[in-house]
Amino acid sequence: MQRKHITEQYSVSEQLTLNDVDTLAAAGVTLIICNRPDNEESGQLAFADIAAVAKDKGIATAHIPFSGGQMTEDDIKAFIGTIQDAENVHAFCRTGNRSTQIWQAAQDMMAAQAPAKDTSEQANVAENNPPATHYDVVVVGAGTAGISTAASLLKRKASLKICLVDPADSHFYQPGWTLVGGGVFKAASTRRTMAEVIPKGTTWLKEAVKSFAPEQNRVSLENGQQLSYDHLVVAAGIKLNWDSVEGLKESLGRNGVTSNYRYDLAPYTWELVQKLGKGKAVFTQPPMPIKCAGAPQKAMYLSCDHWFKKDKLNNIDVSFFNAGAVLFGVKDYVPSLETYIEKYQVDTNFGHNLVKVDGPNQRAYFATTDQNGEQTIVETEFDMLHVCPAQTAPDFIRNSPLVDDAGWVDIDKETLQHASFKNVWSLGDVTNSPNAKTMAAVRKQAPVAAHNILKAMQNQDINAYYDGYGSCPLTVERGKIVLAEFGFGGKLLPTFPAWLNDGTKPTYLAWVLKEDLLPPFYWRGMLKGHEWFVKPQLRK
User: In what residue span(s) does the Beta-lactamase hydrolase-like protein phosphatase-like domain sit (predicted)?
Assistant: First the structure.
């Protein structure tokens, strides 16, 4: 059991075992709440069994079950009544997310219902909690997904009152960081100030979101400001969890440890590649989901290509440690990639997840399973270590009522509409849609979201759908790319006919697309609401 304290008196965790009840009793817990329906999955311990053991330990129990994304007002009220007089409460569900969400919802409900004691207190409350500012559409996140959707909405209806909420100063063309790490681009070319890219006609609030109240159509910001909306678009991106690997955060940018997943580190990758003449280079990939699943390999291929062309590769031992079981998730592209694995003499290690980095001693440690099925740790030395961190939805999203049990915004993968709240929409890396988390996916999603939101505003049936399209330009060498384009289920969805560009093979045309065409296409097209080649597909 991984117990997470929300307050000193309230904690949450994943599904409890009977032994966990003993642990909680020893910690002084007086009330256990289960927010998970019985029989939600095979082999799940029944609430009655936990309640029986808890009773023997003198711990009260309550069962307030709801499925992910389906918390009701009655659930919140029952929760408030249950915890009102409790001193030390622990709640659990499958992952702890629902128990966190209902606690936050309870705090919001109690705050909204609390009467002021006198006129001076009322004035103070009004000052600290101003009335909500209303918008037609509130967009949370001003990354690729948020800005593209806002721009596409304004192309359809320029009079919309749209608010973009994002605390960042800068906006980045992140697909360019692979080429920064390969010595092709300069990092500065991938950056713009946020003010430069916010669509004209929208309001940009440079603030962070604190919480969501979708039942009330409200968003609370960290500065206390309240927003209300007719429609909400959640495009908050993904969190790079550097802390998931022991010792990694303090090692980044020194001791040969780098990552193209960060703007300030991609130049260090190229510096290391140029300096390395012999030794051991290690490249890692964590468990899915991650954004741009091919990026860890792209860094490796471009590095190897440089060493190959400088006649250094025979003196460099290259290893790829992948937590997954295959080189790439869509099998049609694997043969071409394997050709380069062989050309660059890469030692591939599947089922190996990076868990620790010792920067000063240049050692990396991977969790894996040995031939006997036992969990073990494998250690390797390195002179250069390129890391892709584990990734999750941002904390303020994972602790919201908008997510599924795994912590991703719960949507219909085709319409991009929320599974429970019909005026909430989500796209990009933050959703539970099974598509690849790439910029190319957003390029197709944004027009779908914009079209369906306008239909919903007009009380018409939503009829645009997203086919799962994603693209991963796999830079196997400088001057050639395997242009992987696919949709839901790994279905190939090539943009070009095979006679012009066979995406399963490395081509120069795909390199020209990546290096020369896509960056201006991004800045001057996507972010301006131009839907070139991505008009939404409509159901008849």
Answer: 5-107
